[in-house]
Amino acid sequence: MDLITTGSCYSKDNDREEDEVLLQPYLQFTQVGHARAQYMSNMFHCFNYWLKVPQEKFKQIINIFETLYNSFVMLDDMCDDSVVRSGVPVVHSIYGLPHTLNSVNYANSNALEKLLDLGDPRIMSLYIEHGQKTHGGNGMEIYWRDNVICPTEEEYLELAVAKTSSAFCFGIKVLQLFSDNTENLDKLVTALGQLFQIWNDLVNLKSDKQTLVRSYCADITEGKFTFPIIHAIQTHPDDDQIINILKQRTTSYELKKYFVSILEKYGSFDYTLEVLNKLKNEAVQEVERLGGNPYIDNVVEYILDKLETVG
Predict the structure, then answer these.
(1) Cα–Cα dist 193/161, whole Å
(2) Which residues pair with 85 in a beta bridge?
(3) Is 84 left (phi over 0), alpha (psi -120 to 50) or beta?
(4) What is the rounded CA–CA span in Å between residue 209 and residue 13?
(5) Cα atoms found within 13 Å of the Cα of residue 32, Cβ hemisphere only
């Protein structure tokens, strides 16, 4: 399935004269067309197969969520001290941390204003719940990284739900406020969120494309405890090589290549593929229970096709 891009809350015809200056880092970020935001928009289109929110209202809501999600990814890049995203330097390396951080906060404030303009009082409580889960999950990831504490697999899956699935869940719950469909979709959203997060972890360490897009094995340079890395550490606690390399935040190609070979030796990539297939089956079963959805089926198949190139 081709990824679908939507609009944005912002263009050069902004609501306020100063927006073009204040939002400059944010607008620069959106011009690149980052895969994460495209994937998020695509997933909302898939779910609207069930929700059937009128097109004009749907587009309005998705544009708001694209702003919220782009802002979070920009913040994530700052927290991770990332260097490259989608083949170009991260925005905060161009505009500086103060301007970029302020631009993120300003974009979020404007998006919240537009959310409240939708006119449903339940939106605010959903927004607060989403913020607590998303930033709480991101905060725990930062805490584990900076204190070199390896989480358990269960803790990490809970993090993935908080950091990734929360954005899906928030958007779908807002869409449902304008839909006749009141089905609880949390189980499917959770499975898809975990599937996407763990897939992203695997691709970062295994895909040659990442060498061009975000630098080779960027998660190692950022010192992150991702799903395959957690498996290797938890199943081989006496081998301290992985922890010692993560501590260094290395940019050495040869050292990162050796790191990947350790994960290969310990079967961490094979195990990750097993978990991804389990999550895929859970998602497929839940889609069937909900009456079927060819668009979500296509997204799952798209991910699995990509896995064949990195597995």
Answers:
(1) 6
(2) 88
(3) beta
(4) 36
(5) 19
Phi then psi dihedrals of residue 309, to 5 deg: -85, -15
CA 290 to CA 188: how far, in whole Å? 9
Q: Which amino acid is at 83?
A: V
The 10s digit of each residue's pLDDT in 266-297 is: 999 999 999 998 998 999 999 999 999 998 88
- Measured distance CA(195)–CA(201) in Å, rounded: 10
HSE, side-chain direction, 13 A CA sphere, residue 176: 16
For the stretch 97-138, pLDDT in tens is 999 999 999 999 999 999 999 999 999 999 999 999 989 999
Is there a contact between 257 and 211 (Cβ–Cβ < 8 Å)? no
Q: What is d(CA 267, CA 269) in angstroms, rounded to the nearest whole number?
A: 6
Q: Distance of alpha carbon 259 from its chain centroid, rounded?
A: 24
Tokens 């927290």, located at residue: 79
Q: In degrees, to the nearest 5, what angle opens at C-alpha 154 toward C-alphas 149 and 155?
A: 40
Predicted pLDDT of residue 4: 36
Contact 239, 280 (CB under 8 A): no
Tell me the average confidence (pLDDT) per consecutive run of 10 residues in the chain, 311 residues long.
Answer: 42 63 92 71 90 95 90 90 83 95 94 94 93 91 94 90 81 95 91 88 78 71 95 96 95 93 97 93 92 86 63 48
Q: 64: closest CA among 102, 21, 120?
A: 120
Element (H, E) at 299: helix 294-308
CA 137 to chain centre: 12
210 to 106, 112, 205, 290, 301: CA distances (angstroms): 31, 33, 8, 35, 21
Residue 94 Ramachandran class (φ > 0 left, ψ -120 to 50 alpha, else beta): alpha
Q: What is the 3-state secondary structure (H, E, C) of 22-89?
A: HCHHHHHHHHHCCHHHHHHHHHHHHHHHHHCCCHHHHHHHHHHHHHHHHHHHHHHHHHHCCCEECCEE
